[in-house]
Amino acid sequence: MLTDIDLQKAILNNIPDQAWLMDRDSRYILVNEAFVTACGLTETNILGKTPIEVWPAHWGREYMKTDAQVVSSGQRMRYEEWRQGPGGQARWFDIIKTPLRDTQGLVVGTVGISRDVTDHKQMKQELRDLSAYLQSVREEERTHLSRELHDELGQSLSALQLGLGVMEAQLPVGSAAWVGHMDTLKALTNETLSSIKRIASDLRPPLLDDLGLESAMEWLLVGFSKRTGLVHTLQLPSSPLQYDHDASTTLFRILQEALTNVSRHGQATRVNVALVERDDAIILHIADDGRGMDATTLPHQKSLGLIGMRERCVLLGGQLAIVSLPGQGTQIEARIPK
Ligand SMILES: Nc1ncnc2c1ncn2[C@@H]1O[C@H](COP(=O)(O)OP(=O)(O)OP(=O)(O)O)[C@@H](O)[C@H]1O
Ligand SMILES: [Mg+2]
Predict the structure, then answer these.
(1) Are strands 231-235 and 107-116 parallel, antiparallel or unpaired?
(2) CA-133 nearest atom, ligand 1
(3) Which ligand minimizes its atom distance to the CA of 230?
(4) Whose CA is nearest to atom 17 of ligand 1?
(5) What average pLDDT does the chain have?
(6) How many angstroms does the Cα of residue 284 sit away from the middle of ligand 2?
(7) Among 114-118, 130-134, 257-261, where is mean pLDDT lowest?
(8) Which residues pair with 81 in a beta bridge?
(9) Cβ count within 10 A of residue 31
């Protein structure tokens, strides 16, 4: 037969958060396994004690203050607090304390639960940063596009308009000057067409939609090597893979960002790229031989290129792994499920 205490304990231990039951003087009556682990004491050293005796005294005093508030008001309390974790880093907790009443309705103690919400908070902050970053990238792209439209296409079209005006007003049709002018304007029209193609392909390479990811990757890497002088290798599956539109865009943008990083930060001489098919996933490897980085410090930086890559993968149910050590190059692996 299970006693009431066994039953309560079984329920409490099933909760992954820290949970406890205490009397109205803040003495622990029951604590769960998560609580014991966080506290670092044995259960027998916790039961019957108050928070001041089991936690660092300044936290203990805070806990007793809120316990007393719940007992005297008879109201449930919910608040967030932070504590210094074992590694010295701040950890955030979402805490709920609820009064426990006897059959007459008198408050005899409290029941509490404390959830570590640090990762959740950090993720929310990252998403907020990322969305601000995406907004600014969009704004930058618009500024860039408007400048290109204005400076390049606007200039060329104005020149064409002017040239046509001169031909119409001043040059006899078929004269040598008219023919010369016509040739100049035809050449200008060709240049304008090339500019339009280049601008459109910078925005989204048509290869990606027309010939697929593999060709677009090849195009990107050839352009990258030409611009930066870095050597590249590209290993592709023997037969073209089937992707949906989102997967190929994601893998293409990840490669684009990774190559930008290699040229900006890597001090590398070469980059090896491979697209590999597995039974359940498509994997993109990007490895450079540059200066590498301390991957453990990355989550605390404000830069968002790597976070953006990871979010793109996660959105498709995939994962991004970064392996890098100072002086030993950087390897990125993006895995997108099929
Ligand atoms: N291939 C690489 N080799 C060495 N260091 C790298 C490499 N890729 C990234 N890093 C390091 O990681 C940091 C974070 O990269 P991330 O792409 O997130 O940001 P960023 O490139 O600095 O800025 P942006 O937000 O414009 O991309 C970089 O500042 C750089 O120090
Ligand atoms: Mg970057």
Answers:
(1) unpaired
(2) 25
(3) 1
(4) 305
(5) 90
(6) 17
(7) 130-134
(8) 93
(9) 24
Continuous H helices in the chain? 4-13, 33-39, 51-54, 57-73, 118-148, 155-170, 176-203, 206-210, 213-228, 245-261, 305-315
Among 104, 106, 83, which Cα is nearest to 93's? Answer: 83
Residue that the structure tokens 């590209």 belong to: 234
The answer to whether 264 and 247 are in contact (CB under 8 A) is no
Cα 309 to ligand 1 centre (Å): 11
* DSSP symbol at 48: T
The listed CATH number (3.60.110.10, 3.30.450.20, 3.40.47.10, 1.10.150.130) that belongs to domain 4-116:
3.30.450.20
Place of tokens 């009443």: 101
Tokens 């949970």, located at residue: 19
Query: Considering the entire predicted model, what is its pTM?
Result: 0.63
For 296, phi then psi, to 5°, come to -70, -20
Please, what sign has the CA dihedral across residues 97, 98, 101, 105?
A: positive
Residue whose token pair is 């974790």 = 85
For residues 77 and 66, is the Cβ–Cβ distance under 8 A? yes
Closest CA to 320 of 153, 305, 174, 329: 305
Which pair of structure tokens corresponds to residue 94? 């979402």
Residue 94 DSSP symbol: E
Long-range contact list for 88-91, CB < 8 A, 24+ apart? 90/118, 91/116, 91/118
Testing ligand 1's pocket by substitution, the residue of 303, 320, 333 carrying the most ligand atoms inside 8 A of its CB is 303
Strand-pairing partners, residue 322, are 332
- Residue range 205-338 forms a domain whose CATH class is alpha beta
Distances (CA, A) of 316 to 133, 177, 244, 313: 20, 61, 11, 5
Distance in angstroms (rounded) separating the CA atoms of residues 65 and 62: 5
Q: What is the pLDDT of residues 266-281, one digit of tens each?
A: 899 999 999 999 989 9
3-state secondary structure at position 300? helix
Q: Which residues contact 174 (CB under 8 A, 6 or more apart)?
A: none
What is the structure's pLDDT at 21? 95
